[in-house]
Write a structure and sequence with these properties.
The protein is of the alpha+beta class. About 25% of the residues lie in helices and about 25% in strands. Helix 6 crosses helix 7. It is globular and about 70 Å long. The two termini are about 35 Å apart. The mean pLDDT is about 90.
Length: about 400
């Protein structure tokens, strides 16, 4: 730290101060795994309370240290590479659900709480947080920081849209709150460390059914979506997967999630399947690809937002610029947020050229394309998304 960033304080006094704040088992020198987009941190600290977060961030501000929060780490390689990563602030101890008001359908949740744990706890009261981020280990804080949406975005909106209030600590070490209104910063504009969020809850549906139908190409999807709307089946999500793995048929699948009372859900599912025709199927479980990203670590991940009527243009632009079929998966309904994947073996110059070409096509179609993740050797040289770009 001292040799690469002259003027920063020596390691040992800082580490001792972090230990004094967080406890001897919860502050340490960073290891090889404590990195952000290829940049290794210097320290790791895991404060457990609001006061210790305030003290930890305040110490970092006083000593000129760059702080990066970390939840489960599932999205640590996302976005623009930070200029410095002096202190990784682990939010794992900022967890739990409190002030759960079942009648008002709200709860305050610590940002270090895994979403899966949140859903399991709320299900005991017949409620849920209507989010389904594709990152399997996502915490509330990581999901909110990136506004990470899954299929339920179609009916309930983005995670940020379901927040009543956010508590956080500013980069200067001061405690603050925001509801994103009246000039207060929204989640994507907060510069600091999130602490907790007061969230709105929804009833847990008694039944769920997925209706699927094959699609041969992206150009078929808008027509299928129009059929769904005409049949008024009140979907909770509409997702499309294009194309399926090479050599398999059909080349694409459209899937619709229906939720609610068991008898009503079955009736709506049958109506939709009949409307889709003989190739439609109804199942009580999701397709294997549902709610999952089409990319894995080491690939170049793109987020594409485009009106469904322009999906064909987006798919064509990606394939034309890349020279190969590009997998794309995501919302075919309201929101239109999809994800595509490029090989991580491409050069940074090639990736930037693809992004420029696709953006040129989408610009006139009210669409956007941003790179959200890439190997460090690529992300260091291309225009990567920042959290505020995804709100």
């Amino acid at each position: 730290m001292d040799s690469t960033r002259p003027g920063l304080p020596a390691r040992e006094p800082v580490l001792r101060a972090l230990v004094d704040i967080c406890g001897p088992d919860f502050a340490r020198a960073a290891g090889a795994a404590d990195a952000v987009a290829g940049r290794r941190a210097t320290f790791v600290a895991a404060p457990a309370t609001t006061n210790t977060v305030v003290d930890t961030v305040g110490l970092a501000a006083e000593r000129g240290l760059a702080v990066v929060p970390r939840g489960s780490g599932s999205k640590m390689d996302w976005g623009k590479r930070p200029l410095g990563v002096d202190l990784l602030l682990d939010t794992g101890r900022l967890d739990g659900i409190w002030h759960h008001d079942r009648e008002a359908a709200t709860a305050e949740i610590g940002v270090g709480t895994p979403i899966r744990a949140v859903q399991a706890a709320l299900a005991l009261s017949g409620q849920r947080l209507a989010v389904d981020p594709p990152s399997a280990t996502a915490t509330l804080g990581g999901m909110l920081a990136w506004n990470e949406s899954g299929p339920l975005r179609h009916r309930f909106g983005t995670p940020a849209a379901q927040i009543e209030r956010i508590s956080y600590v500013t980069s200067a070490g001061d405690r603050a709150e925001s509801d994103g209104e009246q000039g207060r910063p929204g989640i994507g504009e907060i510069d600091g460390v999130l602490l907790s969020a007061l969230v709105r809850l929804e009833p847990l549906p008694a039944a769920r059914r997925w209706v699927t139908v094959p699609v041969s190409a992206a150009r078929e999807v808008p027509g299928r979506v129009a059929e769904i709307r005409a049949l008024d089946v009140q979907p909770s999500a509409i997702e499309v997967d294009l194309p399926t793995p090479a050599g398999r048929r059909p080349p694409g699948i459209l899937a619709v999630l229906l939720e609610g009372d068991p008898a009503d859900v079955l009736q709506r599912a049958k109506r939709l399947a009949t409307g889709f025709g003989a190739n439609a199927a109804v199942a009580p479980v999701a397709p294997p690809w549902w709610g999952r990203y089409p990319f894995a670590r080491g690939a170049v991940a793109l987020r594409v937002t485009v009106p469904i009527a322009e999906l064909q243009a987006a798919v064509y632009a990606l394939g034309d610029a890349t020279g190969i079929p590009v997998p794309i998966r995501g919302s075919a309904g309201r929101g239109g947020a999809m994800h595509a994947v490029l090989p991580g073996t491409l050069t940074a110059q090639r990736v930037e050229g693809i992004l420029d070409a696709v953006r040129g096509v989408l610009l006139a179609r009210d669409g956007r394309c941003v790179a959200i993740a890439a190997p460090p050797e690529i992300s260091a040289h291309i225009d990567m998304a920042q959290t505020r770009d995804l709100f």
